[in-house]
Write a structure and sequence with these properties.
With 368 residues, the protein is an alpha+beta fold. It is built from 9 helices and 12 strands. The protein has helices at residues 15-18, 34-49, 75-80, 86-89, 130-142, 219-223, 229-243, 250-262, 269-279; strands at 115-116, 125-126, 154-169, 172-177, 181-188, 194-198, 207-208, 286-292, 298-306, 311-317, 324-331, 345-357.
């Protein structure tokens, strides 16, 4: 069986960020979305072989034991080393291409590899440049004319995404990539309703994101976060410490958690500014002189290297406006025997549109 990539995990799939919500809201009913569980496990089975475990994590059933740390393989599993299996319990309502209703692509079959692994030039990292750059990014985030969403509206995010991963076949492993493809997400302000359309992962009509459990990237949840950077970072660390895998560095887990709150979301200006200021306080955060998003746009980046797996997570910003463009994960330190070499881009994304609309499946400019 071949390992294959999944989409970039939605913030709801992270217990670091989910724990920022009141704990009572995270109680999950048993036995829901069994279809999602089965399809997800089919995708990650090859990766889990390396841990000599199988996971029974249901997409809507609380997990009781952590997933063992996994070496780099596909981006979905690689990021899972930050979390116990409970993270997957929150994924049922949000993971692309896998849901109980709405219809998946190719009858649930995994996306096929389309080419060699994506590669890039690694930008120079500057530890001293991060605080100043993040201060400028924070000021830009606070000075925004974006409209405040009203009750009943939805946050719409359009993006382009692609991944490189390790494909195993007959005992042989090689680094491959999937095709750059489009992704559209709609989420209600409370995070309980929405829709996803992702090329190659869902049908053309998409799948529902309806859930009884709101996710931490929802507008209302973000609006309730502290705007004091110190208090916000303490809250993120507490959530991370309670849920992360012990082999993952504490500071790396916090950095990733902040990034996931910023990606497919629409934070109020003061919260977005506070998240960037909080990131500046995490040890090991650096600035990068040049990084390229999934659509080829060059920008500057804020990044942090995970010394456990040799990968660097980069948040990419426009060099002039400092608007958030996207994210990528780059191998910067090789591991012996790993097909993913230095310079491999294991995940790349680009936000192409972010807006407030009146209904799920409505695109900006369309009359509801």
């Amino acid at each position: 069986m071949n390992a294959s990539p999944s989409h970039r995990p939605h913030p709801a799939e992270w217990t670091e960020t989910q724990s920022l919500l009141p704990s009572a809201e995270r109680d999950l009913p048993a036995g829901r979305h069994q279809f999602h569980k089965e399809q997800m496990m089919a995708r990650i089975h090859e990766d889990l072989r390396t841990t000599s475990r199988t996971s029974a994590a249901s997409s809507r059933t609380p997990a009781t034991s952590p997933i063992a740390p996994v070496k780099r393989s596909n981006p979905f599993l690689r990021r899972a080393i930050l979390l116990p299996a409970a993270a997957f319990a929150l994924a049922g309502a949000v993971v692309g291409g896998l849901a109980l209703t709405g219809g998946g692509a190719d009858d649930g079959k995994a996306a096929l590899a389309t080419g060699p692994a994506l590669t890039t030039r690694i930008g120079a990292a500057d530890p001293k440049g991060a605080p100043q750059l993040l201060e400028r990014i924070s000021l830009a985030a606070a000075d925004t004319s974006a409209p405040t969403p009203r009750k009943g509206q939805y946050i719409y995010i359009a993006s382009k995404v692609a991944d490189s991963y390790v494909k195993s076949d007959g005992g042989k492993s090689e680094a491959v990539s999937n095709e750059l493809h489009s992704r559209q997400v709609w989420n209600s302000l409370d995070g309980r309703d929405g829709w996803l359309i992702e090329a190659g992962e869902t049908s053309d009509k998409g799948i529902t994101l309806k859930s009884d459990v709101p996710f931490s990237g929802a507008y209302n949840a973000l609006a309730g976060l502290p705007t004091d950077p110190d208090a916000l970072l303490q809250r993120i660390y507490r959530a991370s410490d309670a849920n992360r895998d012990p082999e993952v560095p504490r500071d790396q887990a916090a950095f990733v958690a902040i990034g996931d709150l910023l990606f497919e979301s629409y934070p109020p200006a003061e919260v977005g500014a506070a998240l960037y200021k909080a990131a500046a306080k995490i040890p090991g955060v650096v600035s990068v002189d040049d990084a390229i998003d999934a659509t080829g746009r060059h920008g500057v980046a804020i990044a942090r290297q995970n010394d456990t797996d040799g990968e660097r997570t980069e948040w990419i910003f426009d060099k002039k406006t400092l608007r958030f463009l996207g994210e990528r994960i780059v191998v910067v330190k090789a591991t012996a025997g790993d097909p993913l070499k230095v310079g491999t881009v294991t995940h790349t994304s680009a936000i192409t549109e972010r807006a407030v609309v009146d209904a799920a499946k409505q695109v900006p400019g369309q009359v509801s």
